[in-house]
Structures are given as structure tokens and as C-alpha cells.
Amino acid sequence: MAGMAIGRAGAGGSAADDSAYPRGSRPWLLLSYLTLLFVLSFIDRNMMRSMVDPIRASLGISDVQIALLEGAAFATLYSLAIIPMGFAADRFNRRTVLGAAVVGWSGMTMLSGFAASYRMLFVSRMGLGVGEAALQPCAMSMIRDSFPPQRRAWPLAVYTTAPLVGSALALVIGGALYGFAKSGGTHGIPILGSIEPWQFAMVVPGLIGLCLGLAIFLFREPRRVDVDTDASENAGFKESLRHMRGHAGLYVLLFSAMILWSLANTGWSAWLAPAIERQHGLPPEVVGPTAGTIALICSAIGALGAGFVIDRRALAGDRDAILKISIALQVLQIVPVVGMFLAQGTTGVWICLALANLLIGSMPVAAFAILTEITPGNHIGKIVALFNLAQNFLGQTIGSAVFAFVGEEMIGGRLGIVWAIVACYPVIMAVSLGLSVMLMRARRRFLAGQAG
User: Fold this and answer.
1) Other residues' Cβ atoms within 10 Å of the Cβ of residue 46
2) Taking the mean position of all CA atoms in its chain, how far away is CA 226?
3) Which residues touch 445 (CB under 8 Å, ≥6 apart)?
4) Prediction pTM value
């Protein structure tokens, strides 16, 4: 019965009156701040991507070890911490939990900039994962309690542009800071002037994050609304898992499709900069800012545009719009992603990169919209935690390592990673697309059942 109540709310109505949600500019200011934190989190976790070869040379490590830093090091403690963080988001003051987490992960980002060994960098990346584990459960819960269901799709579209924008900015900022330090710009600066350029590029975002973390106390904690009436207000994991079992097919398809989408897109984007550098002989200070600027502009336009079109189609009565549009865009995206690494000149690379990023952002919008559609308010933190655990550990962690393993161990050579992307990406995306089609049908049955 709880799932039925929340399903009706997500499908078209609201279990709580609109007056229960904050009005005016408050929810939009909070959304802007949470989106900024989400952008920062992806800058911090992806900063290494624009400086792979300098880090390898400095620490004397391989591509597989880089993949472990980007994936396993981050995801190990992230995976262990996200479940208690999801519990905390449903039980405690989300503002306090999130503020402490941002300060903590920013400190770890700074520590990674002072790493003088592979082991120290690995440990600091693990600490980064602990702090970032609090963001998604707290943020999704606060967004859910700030916007009624019928006005939630656009805010979710705005929020879910953050990984794309943050990943792009990591290339832009990382390349720019690396180039600045490499050219002697840090000479004479206490402490920062004595570290390597790639280390300087890691420290600066951490300093910014410390300030942003404290700014959360300028916002008011949203009141929790639209909860599962068949469970206590502070429902535990037993109640959350019982809700998921009641809609197991829908949750399994949603989790699986998003995991594979994340694996495929993390794989090629993690190796984008070094692949272009190796294939076309360009330095990091050129590839990072160029690729990052293109990705920043195009991914934001693409994700927001997809959210706008989905909303328009949904208002016109197309209840499947959120997945039909997402599936169509993902099919189209395969062409420029593969074409990017088959292009003979850099002009073709940049054009394909622009097209790939215009088409990349629809799946996260669809996934989070469906997740909030079928999940009650007092379960959302824990279930978002489980969702992100699966997506990060099985998607982002394995994605980078799978592409690196195929490129280094199965193909080999300096351009091994390039051919690994060309071979792996279409296959993984084909499976994800098949699951998305099944998800669309399962969601259609779910909504029909709630309407009945």
C-alpha cells in the first residue's frame, strides 16, 4: 500500500498539498547551491583525468594503477560509507551532515595534492570517497522536499547536469592550473610554489570546497513531506528494503540500465584526455581546456534541452517521454563517441566530442526522475544511497578499469586505450539500451497499476 500511495503521487498528483513545499526563491537558491556542490564533487574526483601522463611520470605508475586511483580508491570507502550516509540523510539534519561532508572531502582533495607517493594518493582518494558519499542522499532528499512531484522534473534536470559540467570543468580547470604552475606561475607562493604542477592543480579546488562547505548554513533545512504512511517517519533499512521488494522488477531494471550507462560513459570519458594526447601528440595543457570547454558547454545544453523536451512531451500526455527520448539520444550518441577516436585530425575529434556531449545527459535525468517517482520521502535517502552505491561501485569503478585492462592487457601499445574505447563502448551501451526498453515497459505497467 505504501508503494501504491507514493506511485500515485509520482505519476501525476501529490501525496502532500503544494502548500507543504517551500515557495518563492528559497527552493531554487537551495537547488543552485546543491548543484554547485555536485559540480565541485565531480571536479574533485575527476581532476586527475587532465593530468594522467604527468602523474604517471611523477609517481612511476601504469595506466591500470591510474584506473585504480580513479575508480577503486574512490569507490571502496564511498561504497562502505554511502549506506550509513543514506540512513543519516533520512534520520538527521541533512544540512549539518552535508556541510561536514563537504569540508571533509575538500580536505582530502587538498591532501591528494600533497601526495608524494602512490600509496598516499590512493589513501587520500579513499578519504574523498567517504566525504562525497553524503552528497547524493542528502541532496536528493532535500530537492524532493523542496519541489512537488509535478514540478520536480526540471529541477532534477538542472541538478543532474552537475556530473557533466563538473567532469568538463575538471578538464578545463585541471589543464589551466597545470599549465599555470608549469609555466612558473606559482613561483614564490609559500608551500604551493614548491610542489609539482599536477599537485598544485589538485590543491586549489580543495581550498574552494572548504569555503563552499561552510556556506550551507546560509540555507534552511526543508521540512520532510510526502512520506510512506505505512512506515514510521524514521523508517529503517528493513522498511526501505521491503518497499523495494514490492517493486523489485522496476528497481532492478532501473539500477541495471544506469549501472551499464555509467560504466560505458565513465570508461570513455575517463580516458578521453590521455587518448587524445597519445593519438594526436597534444600536451595536457591543450587537451584539457579544449576538451573541457567543449564538454562543459555542450553537456549542459544537451541535458537541459533533454529535460525541457521531456517536460513538454509529458505535459502533452506522453507518459513514456522520459525514457523514449533518453533511449533515442543514447542510440545517437554511440556514433560520435566511436567517431571521436577514429577521426584523423583534431577538428573531427572536437566535432565528435561536441556531439557526444550534446547527447549524453538524458539518462541521469530519467533515472532520478523515476527513482523519486516510485520512492517515498522517508526512504529516499537510503534508496538513493543504494542506487549510487551500485552506480559508482559497479559502474564508475569498473568502467575505468575495464577500458584500461582491455587497452593495456588485451590490445597493448601506446594506442591500446583508444581501440579499447572503440571496441567496448558500443557493446556495453547496447545492453544498457535493451534494459532501458524493458524499464519503459515495466514503468508503464507500474503507472497503470497505480491509476487503477
Assistant:
1) 24
2) 26
3) none
4) 0.70
